[in-house]
């Protein structure tokens, strides 16, 4: 089975722009979660989508949003980029979601905001 | 709230040395506990997990025991290899998502 794929792998944007990141889960997985990884804050949960619905949300401003399509692929969008949004964005998929179950992570998209 | 405190790194060991990476947690309820590993340029991979007190998770020579009395889940390996060089994350299952420690970078030198 193919693993979780994320595109693009690297992205450079400037402050004020917006960006869309994409995540394709493992075939058959219906849950996709997004995490932000920074040296200062570590790994922080952004949100989880399950069957096209946002099921859980972390403590991030409304500039961070996401969606999930009927094929379980997910996108996250960050509007009005700030320097502090520079991070590695990881998505993870699992068959049914839930924090107790193993999550399978993609390689991440490294976003640099200049 | 739920949180994980992980041993600060980086850790540098010689090949075949014994490894311990400390992890303690604070949680309401009875979380599952995990160790994930991140190799350079890759995402996180589940290394091992334990779902209840006194459970021992093990994989690839790594072990960790869920200790409720000390709220700990320390990672150990008896003899590390150069290929074990990576960043290791301790995590617990909250109500809705995983909570991660800050990560410990391990470098194993030949």
Provide a short characterization of the protein structure:
Chain A has 114 residues and is an all-beta fold. Chain A contains no helices and 11 strands.
Keywords:
heterodimer; A: 114 residues; 7-stranded mixed β-sheet; 0% helix; B: 110 residues; mainly beta; 6-stranded mixed β-sheet; 4-stranded antiparallel β-sheet; globular
Question: If you had to describe this structure to a student in words, what would you say it looks like?
Answer:
The complex is a heterodimer of chains A (114) and B (110). Chain A has strands at 5-7, 10-13, 19-24, 31-38, 42-50, 53-57, 64-68, 74-78, 87-94, 104-105, 109-113. In chain A, the strands form 2 sheets. In chain A, strands 2, 4, 5, 6, 9, 10 and 11 form a 7-stranded mixed β-sheet that branches. Chain A is mostly beta strands. In chain A, a hairpin with a 5-residue loop joins strand 7 (64-68) and strand 8 (74-78). The mean pLDDT of chain A is 94. Chain B is mostly beta strands and 110 residues long. Helix content of chain B is 0%, strand content 51%. In chain B, strands 2, 5, 6, 10, 11 and 12 form a 6-stranded mixed β-sheet that branches.
Give the H and E element order of chain A.
EEEEEEEEEEE
Spell out the helices and strands of chain B N to C.
Answer: EEEEEEEEEEEE
- What is the helix content of chain A? under 10%
Number of strands of chain A: 11
Unreliable stretches of chain A, pLDDT < 50, 5 or more residues? none
Q: Looking at the structure, what is the overall shape of chain A? A: globular
Main interface: chain pair and counts: A-B, 21 and 23 residues
Structural class of chain A: mainly beta
Instruction: Calculate the mean pLDDT score of chain A and round it.
Output: 94
The radius of gyration over CA of chain B amounts to 13 Å
Termini separation of chain B:
41 Å
Radius of gyration of CA atoms of chain A, rounded to a whole number: 13 Å
């Amino acid at each position: 089975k193919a693993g979780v794929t994320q595109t693009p792998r690297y992205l450079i944007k400037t402050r004020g722009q917006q960006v869309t990141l994409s995540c394709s889960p493992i075939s058959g997985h219906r849950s996709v979660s997004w995490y932000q990884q920074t040296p200062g804050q570590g790994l922080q949960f952004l949100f989880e989508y399950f069957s096209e619905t946002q099921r859980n949300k972390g403590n991030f401003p409304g500039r961070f949003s996401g969606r999930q399509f009927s094929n379980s692929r997910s996108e996250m969008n960050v509007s009005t980029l700030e320097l502090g949004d520079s991070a590695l964005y990881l998505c993870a998929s699992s068959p049914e979601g839930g924090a107790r179950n193993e999550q399978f992570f993609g390689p991440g998209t490294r976003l640099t905001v200049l | 709230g739920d949180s994980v405190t992980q041993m600060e790194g980086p850790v540098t060991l010689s090949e075949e040395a014994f490894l311990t990476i400390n992890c303690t947690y604070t949680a309401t309820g009875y979380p599952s506990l995990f160790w994930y590993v991140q190799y350079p340029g890759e995402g996180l991979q589940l290394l091992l997990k334990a779902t209840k007190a006194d459970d021992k998770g093990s994989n690839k020579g790594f072990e960790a025991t869920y200790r409720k009395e000390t709220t700990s889940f320390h990672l150990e390996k008896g003899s590390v290899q150069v290929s074990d060089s990576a960043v290791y994350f301790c995590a617990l299952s909250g109500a809705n998502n995983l909570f991660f420690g800050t990560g410990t970078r391990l470098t194993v030198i030949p």
